[in-house]
Design a protein that fits this description.
The chain is α/β, with parallel strands linked by helices. It contains 16 helices and 9 strands. 48% of the residues are buried.
Amino acid sequence: MHKGTPFAVAAACLLAACSRVPGESPDARALRVHRDALVLDTHADTTPRFQDPDFDFAARHDESDVRIDLPRAREGGLDVQFWSIYVGKVDGDGRAIREALERIDAVWELARRHPDDVVVATDVAGIRRGVAEGKFVSLMGMEGGHMIENKLSVLRDFYRLGVRYMTLTHSFHIDWADSAGMNATPLPPSHGGLTPFGVEVVHEMNRLGMMVDVSHVSDGTFWDALKASQAPVIASHSSCRAIYDHPRNLSDDMLRALAAKGGVVMINYYPGYTDPVAAPKIADWFARHGPEFTALREKYAGDLRGMAQAMRAIAAADPVPRGSLDALLDHFDHALRVAGEDHVGLGSDFDGVASFPIGLGDASQLPNLTKGLLARGWSEEVVRKVLGENLLRTMREVELVAERLRSQPAAPPTPR
């Protein structure tokens, strides 16, 4: 295992050299490994576009429009995508649930409209079957526990509709869990982590077989979730605090604990969280355009399409600063050394953030990531694990825990 010691690094490089095809160029090797691997990403926010009747997933789009469509997924070797089911902080009893249901329906409708190319999977067996059939495999993750509106019954219904992970919070505190927020300074705690009901939510997720996701949560919620969960836990789109100190990233202690639980950290590509050089420039860009965004939110309240078009126009006139692929690869390196080769994966955040590294701007450029990992001495076996196998192993372990828990006598229902 590549742990960073001189002997281990030399051994890993020797193993990598032995797996090369004689005379194969780095580009050809990366493409061979990438095409041979099952490539899986746990977080993209393209989902609202599926609700747009004019959006064609089968057509190739510019990256200023969307980062993932079917042609670019095929070109980039992306086999499996977890689509984010996200609804912002909304008022009104049932409103978050209703809007989440519309997002979920849009994912199922995407597959219905493209039956020869797209399939929705709900378990590891279904993922492997869909990939073997040459389909683009879609799954869903809820991005924020506020969407269950404090009801375990709603959590169960989301699971029945195909949701296979839930991020416990988004960028704001909820009634039963604290968030890390979105900025460089973490939010002041509200609960100190999970409330007793938050622990119940984790337990019910374990019983259902829904992966517990600790991206976006506060440090207190992270540790409480790891303690409460009987199954491995994932971070669907987080990076390493040791490389760039941001509350959205995980400390080394967190990486080790997540790995010890059998989980996976899926590295986020956003330079605002990963790149020490680009992040301050991105923060300045948002500060400069802050008043414009406030006005747009008021003007386009409830009109996601109009809001997105207006924001793209601003970015076209004044491009958001981008980061470097090397800075992102530093996070993969660090996570592989600290958490281990079985506990790192891909969590792009495509279509969810404003900027991406040069050379990794959309799904078509994913082979560049594989090339970078190989160039840094990681073996083809390790790279294949990172590209998808690690998450599948963890997801299967979550399924097995759920099978065991469901075989036990049922506890009395908790009224909610």
